[in-house]
Every structure is written in C-alpha cells, then in structure tokens.
Design a protein that fits this description.
The protein has 91 residues and is mainly β. The chain has one domain. The chain contains no helices and nine strands. Strands 1-2-3-9-8-7 form a six-stranded antiparallel sheet, with no helix packed on it. It has a three-stranded antiparallel sheet with strand order 4-5-6, with no helix packed on it. It starts with a strand and ends with a strand.
Amino acid sequence: MEIKNNRYGHERVYEKINSNKIRITGESIVSRSSEDTDGNIKMFDFEGGPSVTVGGTLNCLKGKWIVKKINLDTSSKIENLSVIICDVEMK
C-alpha cells in the first residue's frame, strides 16, 4: 500500500490487489468519468487528482504501470469516497 496526497493535500490510497490490479481510494466530493460507446470507463478524475486514463501511466507502488482498464467500485457505503480498480501492466 502507498499513500500519496493530491494537489489539495487529501490522501489517495494505492493498493495492489494482485499482479495486475491496483485499487485507488480517496475522498472526493466531486469526481468525473467518461465512457466509450460500449460503456467502458476511459477516464476517471478524482477531485484534486489523480486523473486516471486508459493507456495512461500510474507511478506508484515502486513501479510504472500502464492502465489497461478502469472499473468503478461501488461497494463502499461511505459518503464521498471514490474507489476505482485499474487493470494494469508493468511498463
């Protein structure tokens, strides 16, 4: 697990679930996402960052990871907590 602060000083928690999945969790009153025509998430933007895009890079957990897929985790019942799970591969 690694904790980084966004540009407003709020914590973002990066957790490696397995060899090709990373969970990013953080408080966001406002978050944005965009989807392709098939409904796949192509971009997710936490309030104050990070902005995660398919094909983009995550620099965390002692590596550089290419984001292959973004899934929204809606299981949290905590208000204003955003959670995404990214399928990744080591760059």
